């Protein structure tokens, strides 16, 4: 069974540009989560999508947005990029909405903002 | 609100020695706790999880963790370290009392294994 996949592996942008990151969950999983792992800031929750809707978002500005498609894949968009947006962006999926459900992570997209 | 504290940003052990990585949690509801491992330039891999069944949880690669409510701890152990265990380890608590499920992570502990 294929795991969570993310694309691209690396992304280099300049300040002010927009970045689009993609995630495909494990087959059968309906929930997708996005996390940011920035140097010195640890792993922080960004967004949670389930059944096509945004269910929760972390303490990030509105220029971080995304969506979930009918096939449950997801896209994270970051507008007006800033240098501090440089980070590893991790996507995770789970089979349902439950606190005890395991979130399975993809390999991440490394975003570098110059 | 839930939170996780990992004591020690770096832990160094000799190959074959006991591994002990510390995690303390704070939770206003019965916690669900997870340990993940991250190898260089990779995502997170689940090692084990506690979901209110047995307090001693066995995971992959010989790791186990014990949930101690009285100490609010969920320390990760492995009897004998292997070179391949060198990685960063994250403890996490599932926060979702209001149906807004997300993981809250500790700051991570980097495990170094000396030959």
Give structural notes.
The complex is a heterodimer of chains A (114) and B (115). With 114 residues, chain A is mostly beta strands. Chain A has strands at 5-7, 10-13, 19-24, 31-38, 42-50, 53-57, 64-68, 74-78, 87-94, 104-105, 109-113. In chain A, strand 7 (64-68) and strand 8 form a beta hairpin. With 115 residues, chain B is an all-beta fold. In chain B, strands 2, 4, 5, 9, 10 and 11 form a six-stranded mixed beta sheet that branches. Chain B has a five-stranded antiparallel beta sheet with strand order 1-3-8-7-6, with no helix packed on it. Chain B is globular. Chain A binds chain B through residues 4, 6, 31, 33, 35, 42-45, 48, 55-56, 58, 90, 92, 97-108, and chain B through 32, 34, 36, 42-46, 49, 51-52, 90, 92, 94-97, 99-108.
Low-confidence stretches of chain A: none
Please report the total strand number of chain A as a whole number: 11
Helical element count of chain B? Answer: 0
Number of helices of chain A: 0
Counting helices, strands and paired strands, the structural category of chain B is mainly beta
Query: How many strands in all of chain B?
Result: 11
- Class of secondary structure makeup of chain A: mainly beta
Query: Biggest β-sheet of chain B: count, sense, barrel?
Result: 6 strands, mixed
The value of Rg of chain B in angstroms is 14 Å
- Cα end-to-end separation of chain A: 37 Å
Globular, elongated, flat, extended or rod-shaped: what is the shape of chain B?
Answer: globular
């Amino acid at each position: 069974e294929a795991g969570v996949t993310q694309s691209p592996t690396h992304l280099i942008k300049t300040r002010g540009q927009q970045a689009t990151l993609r995630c495909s969950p494990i087959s059968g999983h309906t929930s997708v989560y996005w996390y940011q792992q920035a140097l010195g800031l640890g792993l922080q929750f960004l967004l949670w999508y389930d059944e096509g809707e945004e269910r929760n978002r972390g303490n990030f500005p509105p220029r971080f947005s995304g969506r979930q498609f009918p096939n449950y894949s997801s896209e994270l968009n970051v507008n007006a990029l800033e240098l501090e947006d440089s980070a590893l962006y991790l996507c995770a999926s789970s089979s349902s909405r439950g606190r005890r459900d395991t979130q399975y992570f993809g390999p991440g997209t490394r975003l570098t903002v110059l | 609100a839930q939170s996780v504290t990992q004591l020690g940003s770096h832990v160094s052990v000799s190959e074959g020695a006991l591994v002990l990585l510390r995690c303390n949690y704070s939770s206003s509801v019965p916690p669900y706790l997870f340990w993940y491992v991250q190898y260089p330039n990779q995502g997170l891999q689940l090692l084990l999880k506690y979901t209110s069944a047995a307090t001693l949880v066995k995971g992959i690669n010989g790791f186990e963790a014990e949930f101690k409510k009285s100490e609010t701890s969920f320390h990760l152990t492995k009897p004998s370290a292997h070179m391949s265990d060198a990685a960063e380890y994250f403890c996490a608590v599932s926060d979702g009392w209001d149906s807004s499920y997300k993981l809250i992570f500790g700051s991570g502990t980097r495990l170094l294994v000396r030959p």
